[in-house]
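Troubleshooting: if your tokenizer reports a length mismatch, compare your output against this known-good record of 401 residues.
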Amino acid sequence: MFRITHVLRSLPALLVLGHGLPALGTPAAAELLTTDLTGRRVRVHKLTEDTLSYFDETRRLMAQPVSRFVRVRFDRPAVGRMPADDGRVRVELVDGQRIVGAWAADAASGEAVHLNHDVLGSVRIGLDRVRSVTWDPTISGAGTPGPPSGDHLVLRNGDVLEGFLSEAGGAAVRITMQGQNEPLEVAVSSLASVTLANRPVPPAPRLDRVALVDDTLLGARNVVIENGHVTFEPAVNGSPADAVIRVALPRVRRVDLRRHGDVLVDLAGLPRAVTDGGRVFGVPWPPRVEPGRLRLHAPVTVRFDLPPGARRFAATAELEESRHDEGPTAAWADLVLRVAVDGAPRLEQRLSDAAAGALINVDAEGRTLSVEVDPARHGPVMDRLVLRDAFVLVRSGAAGR
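Known-good structure output:
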């Protein structure tokens, strides 16, 4: 169960949050992503149930059906990896929602996680709805799913405990270890992450999603953009909460428009396997997932299982910018990027220091998508590729996360 209390239940009807608002009615710079995964730079004027209006590059006011778009992404700094010990906790839910807030150390212990959030107020999430809770992502294994045999606690010293998590909240959690009868109490201050053996579930159909600048991602109904704000009803299991949230636009990163059925699925969240390579000069170098990015080092081939109804795959591919920090070898970066669906080639592109980026937008109707990165002329030296904003578009009516 998921309940939003405190702010949402104590304020009737409407909650207004945020400071430093743009002037009333000022259009917001954004990128619109269409159903063919083509991006367009605009200034968003208004979003209603059926219509999205914006000023195009010629400053003309345009009004288009919402069904033509899958995302409104505002100009915001990129989300970085959550640092250790910054006081925030990242809670991933089984349906893909995410809340980043402060752990409520004074909350009563029980079968729920308690957070305090700037927008949502006091949040209580039942353990059956939680996939993971991460305090310190810098510890090896923190926040990554373990075997479905049990719940996993990763401690800050690197130790891992496996068993059944029976209580959370407050200053400690309780886990019953395999073969033990009594629960073990573990201080929250010693935890890097908790990963529960709950199965992922598909999100409620035709439910928009609102991403905030703190990396919180919420299911939402009745999303409206107007007068420098985004207004919506936060929803869980397809049911709206008993309050309306009104958030200043500077606090909103994007709105995913799922109301007409087309869904963007993050490539990094799909089941994947390294089918070839993954070692550089004998050293293991597996794919690395970060918010909004997938990092690969040649030579490697990664196969992704596509969801039913997959239509297109799009991403920005670019050589890792940090190569310039490593001296003259940066110029040696050169690789060949190949994309295939069910083994059939969709794209082949060479990247080098002289042409360091490429846009991918290919048909993805099939069961598997493979991304292959091969060394070119200079071998695997500095051949580090970043796939940014990598998404699969899933057809209306098909299941997707």
